Amino acid sequence: MLLCLGLAGCASPDDITGSLTDSSPMAVRTAAASPAPRPVPPPASHASSSQASAPAATHPAMTPAALARDERNFSACIAALEPRARAKGVSAAGFRRYTAGLKPDMDIMKKLETQPEFSRTAGDYVDMLVSETRIRKGREAMAAHAQVFDAVGRTYGVDPYVVAAIWGIETNYGGARGSYPVIEATGTLACVGRRKAYFRDEFIAALRIVDRGDIPESHLKGSWAGAFGLTQFMPTAFQRDAVDFDGDGHRNVVDSVADAMGSTAHKLKRGGWRPGMSWGYEVVLPRSFDYMLADKHRRKTMREWWALGVRRPEGRPMPNASETAYLLLPAGAKGPAFLMTDNFKAILSYNPSDSYALAIGHLADRIRGGDGFVQPWPDDMRALSRTERTELQQRLASRGYDVGPADGVLGSSTRSAVREYQVRVGMLPDGMATGEVLDSLRSGGT
Questions:
Q1: What is the largest CA-CA distance in the chain?
Q2: Where among 368, 398, 426 does a domain terminate?
Q3: What is the pLDDT at residue 243?
Q4: Residue numbers in the chain where pLDDT is lower than 50
Q5: What is the pLDDT of residue 446?
Q6: What pLDDT does 13 receive?
Q7: Does residue 268 sit within a domain?
Q8: 153 assigned to some structural domain
């Protein structure tokens, strides 16, 4: 929900599964209410300083000269978008009203280009987001809006606790929505810098929102990248998924809890949510387990997982024997294991990060009154920085493994390559790109 920048309602190759970025709603504003992360062991001593701190090459559209040129041409760029906006339903009067005197916020370019690297393990990420404070506030929010959540569950068949969890993680139940004017922010990104093509649609969608009267312009504020509302919709995602759940004639996800929760549930339903099914289940694996099965492309029925020795902890019953799921090991073989259903995939449609979706599901269960995970997160795992992830991909590629683009994004190709490498060097093949794997590659592993 990135650039979509890890923002709600969108997905792109910029998303980094299992890591935080500046635009992620959790990156900064949840810190006060969350426990400090576990200490992270330092990188191996043989990693060079150039490996750890080499600056990324400046994109041609982000050089000082290019930015200055875009800033000078800003008014002309905005004016040139009028025909496109008119074709999307924005009135001529509305376009001119909302763009009159519009200026770029050049500070946004600093945020776009200098997002800090958050290297957190899945365990640190989930523990930070699923705090006791957020659990308590979630219960209070659901009690205060019980009729809304009941109606949302009946209308869309979506677990209202999951909807509440998204509200809690995205904006801390409305307490941290962002203060950037969305039209100014998306207009800036539509005409300045390296993401113009993407943000032109977002800018025009933002104009449609205020031109239709769904949300007053003065209330349409959010993140620097344009996400807004109680559950952080990007403007184009709003156009696709927002609903007028309170029946007042406007789709106002900023001021109406009913509209925001209804719109969030509608998005999850469109993402494939199946009524009456959990998002997933913590499980315990047998000692002789074949970790090559920990692959989201290898779905099995619960009956088949049971036959392989997979059990739920503390003697809890397995779900419907014919229900299918895949095995997720967010911290590798040393951490908790989960069987993920189609509803986990529905949460991923909101934000395509496994760690994000796991935090949403777990927070929902805790708000409902469930317990924490039985298997602890490993204390000795070191998360890789993006520079290290890129290095790991490059080292694997140099050995003939198919990792896809060496961009620091740990997609399915990289995980498969890591698993193949682990098999070759005698590690447990859990597909986790850890410091241990990188150290093995650096030391000359095959």
A1: 69
A2: 368
A3: 98
A4: 1-56
A5: 67
A6: 27
A7: no
A8: no
Q: Write down how long the chain is.
A: 446
Query: Is 431 among the domain residues?
Result: yes
Indicate whether 363 and 390 sit together in one domain: no
3-class DSSP string for the chain: CCCCCCCCCCCCCCCCCCCECCCCCCCCCCHHHCCCCCCCCCCCCCCCHHHHHCCCCCCHHHCHHHHHHHHHCHHHHHHHCHHHHHHCCCCHHHHHHHHCCCCCCCHHHHHHHCCCCECCCHHHHHHHHCCHHHHHHHHHHHHHCHHHHHHHHHHHCCCHHHHHHHHHHHHCCCCCCCCEEHHHHHHHHHHCCCCHHHHHHHHHHHHHHHHHCCCCHHHCEECCCCCECCCCECHHHHHHHCCCCCCCCCCCCCCCHHHHHHHHHHHHHHCCCCCCCCCEEEEECCCCCCHHHCCCCCCEEHHHHHHCCCECHHHCCCCCCCCEEEEECCCHHHCCEEEECHHHHHHHCCCCCHHHHHHHHHHHHHHHCCCCCCCCCCCCCCCCCHHHHHHHHHHHHHCCCCCCCCCCCCCHHHHHHHHHHHHHHCCCCCCCCCHHHHHHHHCCCC
Please report the pLDDT score of residue 337 as a whole number.
Answer: 97
Q: Could you tell me the residue range of the domain that residue 330 belongs to?
A: 280-368
Residue 42 has a pLDDT of 39
Say whether both 288 and 362 belong to one domain. Answer: yes
pTM: 0.85
Say if residue 180 is exposed, middle or buried (CB neighbours under 10 Å; 0-12, 13-18, 19+): buried
Structural tokens at position 383? 């998360």
Q: Tell me whether residue 430 is in a domain.
A: yes
Provide the domain count of the chain: 2
pLDDT for position 107: 94
Q: Are the C-beta atoms of residues 171 and 94 closer than 8 Å to each other?
A: no
β-strands 280-283, 221-222: how paired? unpaired
Same domain, 352 and 424: no
Q: Are residues 284 and 362 in the same domain?
A: yes
Question: Measuring CA to CA, how many Å separate 257 from each of 146, 216, 228, 369, 420?
Answer: 11, 16, 13, 23, 48
